[in-house]
Write a structure and sequence with these properties.
The chain has two domains: about 1-175, SPOUT methyltransferase, trefoil knot domain (Alpha/beta knot, 3-Layer(aba) Sandwich), CATH 3.40.1280; about 190-235. It is about 30% helix and about 20% strand. The chain contains eight helices and eleven strands. The protein has helices at about 15, 20-25, 65-80, 115-125, 145, 165-175, 215-220, 220-235, and strands at about 1-5, 30-35, 50, 60, 85, 95, 105-115, 130, 150-155, 205, 210. The strands form four sheets. Strands 2-1-8-7-9 form a five-stranded parallel sheet, sandwiched between helices. The longest helix is centred in the N-terminal third of the chain and has 15 residues, at about 65-80. The chain is elongated and about 70 Å long. Mean pLDDT is about 85; it is low at about 80-90 and about 95-100.
């Protein structure tokens, strides 16, 4: 599965993708992550891609054309010989051929809430995802007139840019791909899991006070342990 990230700051991903499970998933070719910087498609020698917004708002807005060209480059990478233009359908682009259809994700705090269900759906289809990361005051909305996009939010808050949400999506989707976690039972959401977990030692002391693992977890009684986890989850609800 390939993630195509449209971002002004590709280096922001390097550290997270270069560690632990995602690093191994990339090395094992379970996932591929490619980057497309709108600055590379700017039509001026200074590679400037931001301009003041119409309507008197503060801040700067990323221009539409550099982002459009970056998305087109990603589409061509998905399937260079099978980029077709829909005629008389609001001028939207799609990729077809060999069962491939690239999904274009527009990260926005106003989008639909991203969930494990959506992550599993993307992972099961193994379709290429083009994820557009905004910055500053956002991206010129006319990009959404050119391409069919799915607006997604990772939560009811606003961040400085779309890079963190993109990493959240990559992580959440990648772990649903068979082989990434090494065991089909590995995803925590596939089993009863409370927010509290414990490991060795069974008892440790801190500032004169003993801290013990709950006795039920030491009992070896599977049903009692599962019931304990369910009770913990109910208390959180």
């Amino acid at each position: 599965m390939t993630f195509h990230i449209v971002t002004l700051f590709p280096d922001a991903f390097r550290s997270y993708l270069g560690e632990s499970i995602l690093k191994r998933a990339i090395e094992d070719k379970k996932i591929v992550v490619k980057f497309y910087n709108p600055r590379d498609f700017a039509d001026n020698k200074y590679k400037r891609i931001d301009r003041a917004p119409y309507g008197g708002r503060p801040g700067m807005v990323i221009q539409a054309l550099p982002v459009i060209k970056a998305i087109e480059d990603a589409l061509e990478t998905c399937n260079a010989k099978h980029v077709t233009r829909r005629k008389k359908e609001k001028n939207k682009l799609r990729v077809t051929g060999y069962g491939l259809q690239a999904k274009i994700i527009w990260l926005s705090p106003n989008g639909n809430q991203f969930t494990n269900t959506i992550a599993r759906k993307f992972a099961s289809k193994k379709q290429d995802l083009i994820i557009i990361c905004g910055r500053y005051e956002g991206i010129d909305a006319r990009v959404k007139k050119v391409f069919k996009v799915q607006e997604i939010s990772v939560g009811p808050f606003v961040l400085t840019g779309g890079e963190l949400p993109a990493m959240v999506m990559i992580d959440s989707i990648a772990r649903q791909i068979p082989g990434v976690l090494g065991d089909e039972s590995s995803p925590e959401e596939n089993r009863i899991a409370s927010s509290d977990v414990f490991t060795r030692p069974e008892v440790f002391k801190y500032k004169g006070r003993s801290h013990r693992v709950p006795k039920v977890l030491l009992s070896g009684h599977r049903q009692k342990i599962e019931n304990w986890k369910l009770e913990k989850i109910k208390k959180l609800d």
